[in-house]
Each structure stands twice: as structure tokens, then as C-alpha cells.
């Protein structure tokens, strides 16, 4: 019987009981591949007699077979979308199971910043919740993360008072999707578990669609404020012109038919114009400034 194993190279090397020199050589090879933004997977095998099952995973006599290099290129337009997020005051954080150098190179390609600080899964396990809340304010790359660590990251962001939107598509993303303020599942290739845990399902699996939705929501909110300002500015004079003559026993300035005409025709028609306006050129930058002043940040 042949037992196969694949996964993080350092974990596979541990199963193969690599000594220090072999581990150092393997790390050099992984680093060279990661610098090319390649995802690296280790592969090993073991032979087992059916009548002698081992007690644990490390009891297998694994033979290291080699490394698999996978290329997952960045989608066109992602760097521009990430820059638009920064302009709009939205902080972007990468949480991945990839090797740290691979994550750092991908972050450089998409314009994520800062890229000089990376927290790995083992490092995160050594941190207390308070330390994580402090470090997460200046760190946007998390590598070699497992499901429970993704959940801790979301909880740390929420503890810092940030509004958290989490994207994911796998079973391992479900706890973090459920814990985030807005869980966004990639519906095209996502799992049923992630879909049930999320608040929104993205049909085209495109990060740009999320940013477009944020842009549309801010435009609608901005236009609603304009329409409400117009309504208040119109209603107050109408109320004054209707009540003051009655209170002072002056001749009526507006008859009932005038008020009905203003309320049912002129007022709604004018407010609709404000509601359908396109977004202003400085809307995202202006909203970002207001967000920073209020201390309410999105991640």
C-alpha cells in the first residue's frame, strides 16, 4: 500500500524527518521559487503493510519526492482596484496559506502596502489577543494561516473598532465569514458551507465587483443626503408660509391646492433628480477623509 502526502513544504519535510542541512537547502529552493511568485507544494510517499498500521503520522517512513511549483497570476485590473480601495479609505488585508515570500511578492504586484511586515501562522499562535490587536494595525499580510487563525484576525479587527468585510470560498473560510460584519462568498467556485456562512454571494468571483458595490452604495448614500437636504429646505418655507399667516391672521400666501401641488408634484420630481445623480469626482476621497475623522474604518 502506498501512502501519499502533499502540503506545505516545511510540513512535508518534517514528516520526512529532514535534518538541519537538508532543511536549509530546501528553504533555499522554496525561497527561490517564492521570489518568482510561485506557490510551492511538497510531495512525499510512504509504503505501508496493511497488517502493520503505524500509531501516528510521524511513524510513517515518508520519502520526499520533490516540490511542485504552481503559478496563479494576478487578475488584470486588481492593482487598480486595490489603489481605488486606498483612495476610498478602505484597508485591504491579505490572509493566505501560501509561503510568506510568495505572499509578499503577490502583495507587491497588486500594490498592497505595507509589505515589509508579515505575520505567519506559527507567529500568530504565539501572540496574545492584545498583541495581535496592536500588530494588526500596521500589518496587512498574513501567511500560512489556518481557519482558526483567520477567525482570530477578524475578531482582532472588530476589537479595534473596524468594520470588517471578509471574502472567501472554502470550508476553512466559513468561521471567519460568519464572524465578519459582512461575509462575502465567491459563488462561482465556492463551497456550500462558505455560501451558508456568508451574508453576500459574489457571482463573478471578482474583487472588482466588491469595490464597484461599495462605490454604488456610497453614491446612493451621498445622493440620499442631497435629496433629504432639498426636502427639508423646501418643507420649512412651505410650513412657514402656511402657518404664519394663520397665526397672525394675515391673508393666506398658499392655498391648499398650492401645497398639494408642491408636495405631490414639484417636491418629488426635484428630489428624484438628486437621487439619480452620478457620483462626484471627489466622492471617494471626500468620504475617506470623513471616515478617518470619525474613526470608522473598513477592512
Task: Present the secondary structure layout.
Elements lengths: L1 E6 L1 H7 L4 H15 L3 E10 L15 E9 L6 H10 L6 E2 L4 H11 L7 E3 H5 L3 H7 L5 E3 L3 H13 L5 E4 L5 H6 L2 E5 L5 H6 L2 E3 L4 H42 L7 H20 L7 H12 L5
Parallel strand pairs: 4-6, 5-6, 7-8, 8-9
Antiparallel strand pairs: 1-2, 2-3
Helix pairs in contact: 6-7, 10-11
Commentary on this structure:
The structure is a single chain. Helix content is 52%, strand content 15%. By secondary structure, the protein is an alpha/beta fold. α10 (207-248) packs antiparallel against α11 (256-275).
Using the alpha-carbon principal axes, give the shape: elongated
Give the mean pLDDT: 85
Rg, alpha carbons: 28 Å
Q: Order of strands in the sheet with the most strands? A: 1-2-3
Kindly name the structural category.
alpha/beta
Largest sheet: 3 strands, antiparallel
Please report the first level of CATH classification, the CATH class of the largest domain: Alpha Beta
Contiguous low-pLDDT stretches (5 residues minimum) are: 293-299
Q: Which key features would you list for this structure?
A:
12 helices; Rossmann fold; 3 domains; 299 residues; Calcium-transporting ATPase, cytoplasmic domain N; 52% helix
Amino acid at each position: 500500500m502506498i501512502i501519499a502526502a502533499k502540503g506545505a513544504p516545511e510540513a512535508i519535510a518534517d514528516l520526512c524527518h529532514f535534518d538541519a542541512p537538508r532543511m536549509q537547502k530546501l528553504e533555499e529552493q522554496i525561497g527561490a521559487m517564492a521570489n518568482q511568485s510561485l506557490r510551492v507544494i511538497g510531495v512525499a510517499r510512504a509504503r505501508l503493510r496493511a497488517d502493520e498500521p503505524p500509531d501516528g503520522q510521524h511513524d510513517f517512513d515518508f520519502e520526499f519526492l520533490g516540490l511542485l511549483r504552481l503559478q496563479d497570476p494576478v487578475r488584470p485590473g486588481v492593482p487598480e482596484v486595490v489603489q481605488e480601495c486606498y483612495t476610498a479609505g478602505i484597508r485591504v488585508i491579505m490572509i493566505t496559506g501560501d509561503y510568506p515570500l510568495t505572499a509578499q511578492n503577490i502583495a507587491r504586484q497588486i500594490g498592497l502596502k505595507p509589505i515589509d511586515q508579515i505575520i505567519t501562522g506559527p507567529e500568530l499562535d504565539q501572540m496574545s489577543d492584545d498583541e495581535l490587536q496592536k500588530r494588526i494595525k500596521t500589518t496587512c499580510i498574513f501567511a500560512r494561516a489556518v481557519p482558526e487563525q483567520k477567525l482570530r484576525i477578524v475578531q482582532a479587527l472588530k476589537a479595534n473598532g473596524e468594520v470588517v468585510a471578509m471574502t472567501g470560498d472554502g470550508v476553512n473560510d466559513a468561521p471567519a465569514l460568519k464572524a465578519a460584519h459582512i461575509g462575502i462568498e465567491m459563488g462561482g467556485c465556492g463551497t456550500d458551507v462558505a455560501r451558508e456562512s456568508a451574508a453576500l454571494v459574489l457571482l463573478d468571483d471578482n474583487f472588482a465587483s466588491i469595490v464597484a458595490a461599495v462605490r454604488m452604495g456610497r453614491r446612493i448614500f451621498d445622493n440620499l443626503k442631497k435629496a433629504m437636504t432639498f426636502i427639508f429646505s423646501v418643507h420649512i418655507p412651505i410650513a412657514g408660509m402656511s402657518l404664519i399667516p394663520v397665526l397672525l391672521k394675515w391673508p393666506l400666501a398658499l392655498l391648499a391646492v398650492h401645497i398639494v401641488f408642491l408636495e405631490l408634484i414639484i417636491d418629488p420630481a426635484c428630489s428624484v433628480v438628486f437621487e439619480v445623480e452620478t457620483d462626484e469626482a471627489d466622492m471617494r476621497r471626500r468620504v475617506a477623509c470623513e471616515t478617518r475623522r470619525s474613526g470608522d474604518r473598513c477592512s
